[in-house]
Specification:
There is one protein chain. The protein is α+β, with helices and mostly antiparallel strands and about 180 residues long. It has helices at about 1-35, 40-55, 60-75, 85-90, 95-115, and strands at about 80, 120-135, 135-150, 155-170, 175-180. A five-stranded antiparallel sheet has the order 1-2-3-4-5. Helix 4 (about 85-90) runs antiparallel to helix 5. It starts with a helix and ends in a 5-residue tail after the last strand. Residues about 1-20 have low confidence and may be disordered.
Amino acid sequence: MAVLIIALGVTVAMLVAVRSDRDHAVTERDRVAAELTITKGELTTAAAALDAAHQVNDPADMRHAEEVATQYSVGAATFDYRDLDSWIPRLKANTEPQLATKFDTTAAKLRQILVPLQWVSNPTLITAKVMRSDAGSYVVDVFLDTAASNTQNAQPNHSTVVYVVTVDTAAGWQISDVTSPSLG
């Protein structure tokens, strides 16, 4: 009889364990189903995000980013030590406020370098190309053939200058960053 009671106890324990496993499986299934359920609003939001990501690579927008970056780069690379007052505003043209402020703080230092050297620079566009895009901004490499003369080189010396320009579409196609690896 004791064996029968032990067997019955083991059987009940097994049934309880099976029922617990089944209840856990049902709960897990329901949890996973809830996670996989996509509401119409979530699907619309996901589709809009995908569409926005696609628009970042829109050819017309890429051309516009290249035009904005080119206009800026040519303006920044065109200067004459005798007329730096017209050049400084070109450095700040169409830039986000933080970048414009950086140029305000360096303008006097640039003047101290360019005037004694009697530096004149005239660029010609070689090409501009969007190198990458991310979340509403384009990074454009602008290549310029720059003819520069100064007290050390009276005849214009040609060199290729690269401007890496970040154009932010969310800020009205303003420039948020400019670097020039060719200038060090």
